[in-house]
Amino acid sequence: MAGRMIPIHPSHPYESSASSSMRPMRPHVMLFTDPLGINALQLHALARALLLAMPEAAFSFLGEINILFSLPQEGGVQLPVTCVISDAFTWIAESVPAEKVPLWIVFHCGFPLAIWAHVYAELFFLQLWNGRRCCKTAASQELLGYIPKLKNIRVCDLPDGILFGHNNAFHVKNMGKILTNADVVIVPSVQDFLDQNSFRSIGIKRGLPIGPLDLLSPVPPNSSNREDCLGWLDIQPALSVVYVCFGCHSNNTLPPAEHTNVALGLEDSRTPFLWSIKQEHRPYLPEGFEERTRDIGMLVSSAPHKSVLDHPAVALFVGFSGWKEVLQCLLAAVPILCRPLNGEERMVSRVVHDIWCVGVTFDGPIQRWWFSIAIEGIMRGAQGDQMRKSVHKYRIMTMGAMMAGGSLSNNFEHLLKIIRMEEETI
């Protein structure tokens, strides 16, 4: 697939008829998710955005590559696939022959700068591992200054697969090949801070930051918890509540001791809080915590995440620094208290804390006293005021870039033209 160009010939993107007239082929986009389905919801959101903009196109959402050969039919005729969009972890999509699918787009739904870590993975392995079973510099504070886009990232911020060589190592290294072999790479981004020359410098043919999916494909607010959750927020003062949520994926679970320290830190700070915590994690809370904090806090099993972040009472989000969460916080203009746990979360939290200055990060396990001090500093100190100014600035920049004529809006238009075969990938 490397170096592929979109073929332009009579059978594509036009179909021949008996009268020798030419009519455009209906775009048929096939989407493949990662094997575990972790990013399936984001791929669905991308499909919704494309469907709204391209009602004439057909879309298939599949999880197995062999289904490519059992294609949908239109009028009894098999509808050819004109474009495959795959999650960056779906390495098997690389095996689809170019003659079968003329356009391959990779959707990297994670942190855009993590692309550089994946592309340079082999170099990192050579420099950091030196044949050892465990990376000897995994805790190194050394900056990666020899890679321009990562010059503010430390060695210890790199993804787990590079630092520790566990099962994700294969995916980390293989993703670099996938990204450079694809015709187009698209990334959700808060602003177009990665220009085309940056992508080409690492071998990516065409890179398109397309903006946050929450703006491209908005979903109606979930009101299922309105009475229990949003109703409680309605009676809280503006910018008074800490919203705590450590996600729902089993591979991203806060250790029991840290659940305890979060609870004690919240109690020490005497700050109103809303904590979305699964029932199976409640035994980790200190005895009597719910009773002692009943007047200032609320525990729920789940919460309408976006609606909570958008609520005027919420002043701070506490959670893992997943890229999707960070994007949602930036759009809601809510500072972030990050506890990176694995994957690319350390890279994201580094940018949140030291570059964008829109949050604070824990470099290790959450400690009770540190957590309480961090909350007080952000909620009631000058540090929090500055963070709110910074996060508001990024929100304004992103909203402007998503408007007609903005950089992110233009990139999405380029994507539509590429899928319709109206524009070449390079």
From TrEMBL:
Keywords: Glycosyltransferase, Transferase
SUPFAM superfamilies registered for this protein in UniProt: UDP-Glycosyltransferase/glycogen phosphorylase
Region (Disordered): 1-21
Xref: Gene3D superfamilies: Glycogen Phosphorylase B
One MF annotation (Gene Ontology) recorded for this entry: quercetin 7-O-glucosyltransferase activity
Record-stated family: Belongs to the UDP-glycosyltransferase family.
Listed name of the protein: UDP-glycosyltransferase 78D2
Gene behind the chain: UGT78D2
